[in-house]
Design brief:
single chain, 372 residues, alpha/beta, ornithine cyclodeaminase, domain 1, Rossmann fold, 2 domains, eight-stranded mixed beta sheet, globular, binds nicotinamide-adenine-dinucleotide
Amino acid sequence: MGKSTGFLYLNEEDMIKAGVLDVAHCIDVEEELFGLLSKGDYVMGGDKHNAHGIALKFPKESPFPNMPIDAPDRRFMAMPAYVGGRFHVAGQKWYGSNIINPQRGLPRSILMVMLNDADTCEPLALMSANLVSAVRTGCVPGVATRYLARKGARVCSCIGAGPVSKACFDAIVLEAKELEEVIICDLFIEKAEAFAKEVEEKYHLKARGTTNLEEAIRAADIISVAASSLKPIHLDNSWLKPGSLIMFTGRCNIDEDFYLSSKVIWDHAGMHEVYYDEHLLLPENERFINGIGVEIYRMMYEGKLPPITEATSLGDVINGTRAGRESEEERICFVTGGLPVWDVGWSYEIYQNALKLGLGQMLKLWDSPHLN
Ligand SMILES: NC(=O)c1ccc[n+]([C@@H]2O[C@H](COP(=O)([O-])OP(=O)(O)OC[C@H]3O[C@@H](n4cnc5c(N)ncnc54)[C@H](O)[C@@H]3O)[C@@H](O)[C@H]2O)c1
């Protein structure tokens, strides 16, 4: 007789009851995870243990009528990680994204996380992860604001009025304690204004919507960019105030002069080193085109900036091994591409809460494995 195995299934309602929307707690957990990343107490996929994940992208055309065809934001993605420290757990986020899903009453991307015992490899939990992913993504700029924003930041501009931008603001507002005004910039004024109204009602801050990107950037001490790739965002160096912090959660670029005169801090430079190496494998005319922060990779490739191997990660700043903000005048750009370590770490925290609260449904894998 072998060992019986079961795992906990947590649907979205269970996840909410278990605290997945607790932004303040997620910021603290992520701070801890950044520390583990900087110490090296984690493993991600690929030869260098630093891969974001493996994308399943579809061809531009296919002779098979059922095969999906490439389109913006159309992919499946597997994102595995082992997380050390008190977490000591392996897991994976698995999702699919299709930009037309909202027309079907579905979110653009649909996400699940599976957690496994790092030793026996048995599944521990299978969980609805749309909220895990949204909250973990939003809390990253929250941690960055905690460490990198200048004191007395009063104006925050959010570029993009979609769910990711909202999740980012929900975390930033907890860390930027002296915030007075919020500007929301979107291509669609009605989306920007609706988000501004939400901010006013939820946080009692002065808020307004605009479609004028320059005006939103010029006014801000803290800028959070989380727009889709509908229209590429390019900013002029002169628009960014002394002392400002700009955070790229979605694609954005600034004039080269900005990067030459400001500090760039990455969510995890090891992962960007893997991305950078992948770009070098592409034909010259396809390099450094797609991805968050690729324009900075190009400047590194051209020798205009120090190589990615010398770059600073937020975890290094948190652990005190590299400098973060060094003056109130310094401008800082924080780039985040998303790490499976956060999905696994935050999911594990919610799984632990669910166990304590008796939430979810235990599912049987087997009473005794048939093949033993
Ligand atoms: N870094 C990460 O960890 C991470 C994780 C999840 C999502 N993302 C990225 O975040 C971005 C936003 O995701 P979402 O689900 O909220 O997207 P969404 O499509 O629901 O909303 C994006 C908003 O951006 C607006 N927009 C597009 N181009 C713009 C421009 N030039 N100026 C102003 N507004 C513009 C759109 O009108 C839309 O309202 C996506 O690019 C996604 O890939 C990053």
